Amino acid sequence: MNPFIFAAAAFAAAMALGYLLIKRRIKQKREKSPKPAVAKPNPNDRVISCPACAQQIKFTLPVKSNKAQCRKCAAQFKLDVDAHNNVYITEIKLPEDDTAVKTLDECFAILEVKPEAIPLDIRAAYKKKISEYHPDKVENLGAKIRQVAEEETRRINAAYAMLQEDDRV
């Protein structure tokens, strides 16, 4: 018999035996390891989809309040539970905020920069405006002025955030 063929056959047999031993060890480990306990589902658990963004929301009956809010899109909705524990969802339409920043042109107007401004100029304008209206700077000037400053700070931050989302900063 050719020694090379004999060596190849012996090597193949050793590999097959090694494979079988490894497979047997894995099977023994699986049999010895404890199986994880399967949690029994709570019959009062419910899963609903957010009416605005279809995010799955889990809650347990009975609900403490009939109002809920989606963590993903912040949509608010009302939960109604009938006598058979069926859950009905109604989205609550909130009035639109008139002070909210809606367009990029508004952002540039709030920060008092031109639309073709470079990010460095936008950042500098933001820092200047925020330092003018920061609530900590006007805290001693009265409640009305403080309230106006807080509102303007919100608008400035919203404008800057919108510019950041649009990759202008």
Short structural description:
The protein is of the alpha+beta class.
Tell me what you see in this structure:
The chain has 4 helices and 5 strands. The chain is about 45% helix and about 15% strand. Strand 4 and strand 5 form a beta hairpin. The model has no long low-confidence stretch (mean pLDDT about 80). The chain has helices spanning about 5-30, 105-110, 120-135, 145-165; strands at about 45-50, 55-60, 65-70, 75-80, 85-90. The longest helix has 30 residues, at about 5-30. It has a 3-stranded antiparallel sheet with strand order 3-4-5, with no helix packed on it. It is α+β, with helices and mostly antiparallel strands and about 170 residues long.
Biggest β-sheet strands, sense, barrel: 3 strands, antiparallel
β-sheet strand percentage: 5-15%
Taken from the alpha-carbon principal axes, the silhouette is flat
Which ranges are low-confidence, i.e. pLDDT below 50, for 5 or more consecutive residues? none
What is the CA-CA span between the terminal residues? 78 Å
Query: How are the strands of the largest sheet arranged?
Result: 3-4-5
Helices and strands, in order, run as HEEEEEHHH
Helix vs. strand class: alpha+beta
